[in-house]
Structure formats: structure tokens, C-alpha cells
Task: inverse folding
């Protein structure tokens, strides 16, 4: 039944227009892996050959993505972040990879990633230097776009260090044009609104959504629950502005998934996964897929959570209730009164909390719903929006509910 329902949703989605950058990419939030949060700017390949920013790391991650089920679950992009480049451009003025750490070059790496059925992402900077001090693209936008296209790159994250923020609303769209002019579809991730926010300039999100497939708008995620909560708070504070521009082709990016790293507990990891799905956020893991524990892998591969994240409507959810330590977030899914509800318990009292609410108070259209507690894999049939719904939420955890309209659910 759920399959048929999904088919219908996909069919309906085909007639929905794309509002974002019109390069046909990111019709749902991109999924993949990105080096920065976990591997940073470790360039010491002599002493740490497995953990440094070099071709081996990206080949290893591509292998793990294919062999451990991530590719099948929808994770697709293998993204190189900062510190990949040589400190100097070549004699023709082109960016080049560090020859010691990427002895085969980026084109060969892209070929390898493609041969595994995946896509390759890369990083540059709008200013004179990247945040890590490598050559920036200012004055070289066209040549860099061409170089990336020639290499077979499929996604570009363009950062905004060492740049004049006031020139970004004009400059980033120039890169959009340069990328489009290459004829290669390259998913464009912009950091422009984050730099505007930091300079107290209100980002023009309509312009941003026209020029970028995804965009960072807040500080970098760190390996801590505190950092995850800070980002969630920012999204709550700006939810009306941010939700208005979330659509197929254009998504807000609250930064990488840190599931399976050093800090998050299993319950916190479920919470990040659920919240990123509610936010229609890119699912870019930054972790070590070679050593990740099975319980975190399972969370990252949870089919139903991914299905919610990838909902074709592209809508971003919002916080709809705050009560004590509990926040309830709701995302409308599909086109037929379907919802995802995340009950987030920010409390630290060491026992699960029983939370009761009437679903009608969470903005669900009145009616009867079929509810699934996703992480518990528990179903509740025929639940009325007027009845009292109770759910148990662990401290620093989430109860994640998928609500289907019952009438429709039963008739397919
Ligand atoms: C900035 C970005 C990060 C990362 C680093 C690399 O801080 O926001 O995501 O790309 O630069 O130096």
C-alpha cells in the first residue's frame, strides 16, 4: 500500500514546477558524503595516509558508499572540501590538485567515482583564498568553471572567505552563468547567505534560489549536540523566510550530518537525521564510513526517514509547538495531507518523557490518520486529530512520526 502511495506522490510531483536554479539538479535534497567536518584540512599524508585529504580518502569513501548500502539508499555525491588544491595555479592559470596527495589528478578521481556509479563534488572560494588559505576563484570564475567541467565534476561548493560580501549578490550569479556555460550539469552550493548573515545583511533568498541549488546560511556544524541544537534554533528563528524558498531545485543547507562521529549518542543521531528530514536538508554525511558502528549506519540508511527527506514536494517543515523541553516540528509531505512530525526532547532528565497532544493542535488537517513511529517501527491505525496522541521521547532524542491520511491509505 505504501508503495502505491509513493507512486502516486511521484506522479503528482511530475507536474510540480521547479522554482530553483534551472539546471535540472537537486529536485530533491542532494545526498552524499563530504570531507570537511570529519577530516578537516589534514594534509599530512605521510604520517596519516588514511585520514588525510588525498585521493585515497575519496576512493575509500566511494567504495564504502557502494559496498555498504549507502548508494542503494540514495547517497550519491562524494564531495572534496577545502585543502585539495596546490598552493599555486599552473602556468595556464588553472587550479591544480596537490600533486603529492592527488597523484592521479582530479579527472582520474572523477572517473573512478563515476565508475562506481557515484558523482564527484569539489570546493572553491569566491574570494582571493579559500578559508584554508588555498587559491581562490576571484578573477578566475570562468576558467575554474571550465576546469571543473573538464575534470567531470558534478557539484561545486563555493565558499566565501577572503571576499567582499557586498559583491556576492552579483558575483555568485556570475559563477552560476559560468557553470551553465560549460554545458555540464554541476550542482551549485553557495555559502553567500551565510557570509551576508555574518555581516548583518539580509540575504535576498529569491535571488539566491534562482542561482544556487543549495546554500549554507548559518555557522559550521561541529562535532557536538550543542552545535546541532544551535542550528535547529536558527532554523526555527528564520523558518518563515527559509521555508518560503525551499522547493525542488533549491534547498537550505543546515550543514553536514555528523552521525557516526565522536559526539552524538544514538538517540541524538536519530534526532539529527529526523530534523534534517523535516528541514528538507541536503544529507551530506561527514564521517568515517570505514569504521562507522552498525547502529549509526542503520540510522543513516533508514528508508522511511530518507523517503521523508526526499519528499518530492521539497517543502521545508517548521516548528509548530514548544512545550517545556519538547519542540514539535511538522513537515507537509506529498500533496495529499501527509505529514512528518518530529517530537524533539531537548531535556536532559534521565528518563523518557511521555508527551501528549491533540494532533489538530499541530496543524494537521482534521481527519483520521494512519501513524507510523518510524524508529520504533510501530503502526497506529485510524487516529483522529481530535483524540489525544501520546508518544515517549528519550532525553536528547526524538519521536518521529509519519502520518498518512487514513481514508486514502485504506482505499489504495
Ligand atoms: C568554511 C565552510 C566549511 C568548510 C571550511 C573549509 O568554514 O563553512 O564548511 O568548507 O570553510 O575551510
Result:
Amino acid at each position: 500500500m505504501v508503495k502505491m502511495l509513493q507512486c502516486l506522490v511521484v506522479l503528482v510531483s511530475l507536474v510540480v514546477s521547479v522554482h530553483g536554479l534551472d539546471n535540472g539538479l537537486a529536485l530533491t535534497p542532494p545526498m552524499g558524503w563530504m570531507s570537511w567536518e570529519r577530516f578537516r584540512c589534514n594534509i599530512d599524508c605521510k604520517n596519516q595516509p588514511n585520514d588525510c585529504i588525498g585521493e585515497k580518502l575519496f576512493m575509500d569513501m566511494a567504495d564504502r558508499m557502494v559496498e555498504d548500502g549507502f548508494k542503494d539508499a540514495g547517497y550519491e555525491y562524494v564531495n572534496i572540501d577545502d585543502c585539495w588544491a596546490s598552493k599555486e595555479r599552473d602556468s595556464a592559470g588553472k587550479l591544480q590538485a596537490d600533486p603529492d596527495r592527488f597523484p592521479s589528478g582530479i579527472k582520474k578521481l572523477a572517473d573512478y567515482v563515476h565508475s562506481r556509479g557515484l558523482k564527484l563534488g569539489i570546493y572553491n572560494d569566491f574570494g582571493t583564498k579559500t578559508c584554508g588559505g588555498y587559491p581562490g576563484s576571484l578573477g578566475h570564475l570562468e576558467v575554474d568553471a571550465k576546469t571543473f567541467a573538464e575534470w567531470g565534476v558534478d557539484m561545486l561548493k563555493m565558499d566565501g572567505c577572503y571576499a567582499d560580501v557586498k559583491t556576492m549578490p552579483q558575483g555568485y550569479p556570475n559563477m552560476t552563468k559560468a557553470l551553465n556555460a560549460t554545458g555540464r550539469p554541476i550542482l551549485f552550493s553557495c555559502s553567500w547567505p551565510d557570509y551576508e548573515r555574518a555581516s548583518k545583511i539580509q540575504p535576498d533568498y529569491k535571488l539566491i534560489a534562482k542561482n544556487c541549488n543549495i546554500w549554507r546560511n548559518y555557522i559550521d556544524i561541529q562535532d557536538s549536540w550543542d552545535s546541532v541544537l544551535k542550528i535547529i534554533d536558527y532554523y526555527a528563528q528564520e523558518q518563515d523566510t527559509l521555508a518560503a524558498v525551499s522547493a525542488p531545485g533549491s534547498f537550505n543547507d543546515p550543514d553536514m550530518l555528523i552521525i557516526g562521529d565522536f559526539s552524538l549518542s544514538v538517540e541524538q543521531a536519530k534526532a539529527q537525521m529526523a530534523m534534517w528530514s523535516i528541514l528538507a536538508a541536503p544529507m551530506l554525511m561527514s564521517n568515517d564510513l570505514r569504521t562507522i558502528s552498525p547502529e549509526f549506519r542503520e540510522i543513516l540508511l533508514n528508508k522511511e526517514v530518507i523517503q521523508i527527506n526526499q519528499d518530492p514536494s521539497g517543502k521545508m517543515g517548521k516548528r509548530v509547538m514548544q512545550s517545556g523541553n519538547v519542540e514539535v516540528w511538522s513537515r507537509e509531505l506529498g500533496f495529499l495531507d501527509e505529514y512528518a512530525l518530529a517530537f524533539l526532547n531537548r531535556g536532559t532528565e534521565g528518563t523518557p518523557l511521555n508527551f501528549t497532544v491533540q494532533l489538530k493542535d499541530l496543524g494537521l488537517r482534521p481527519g483520521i490518520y494512519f501513524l507510523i513511529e518510524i524508529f520504533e517501527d510501530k503502526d497506529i491505525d485510524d487516529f483522529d486529530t481530535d483524540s489525544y496522541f501520546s508518544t515517549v521521547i528519550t532525553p536528547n532524542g526524538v519521536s518521529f512520526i509519519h502520518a498518512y491520511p487514513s481514508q486514502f491509505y485504506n482505499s489504495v
Remarks:
- The chain has two domains: 20-309, 318-411.
- The mean pLDDT is 94.
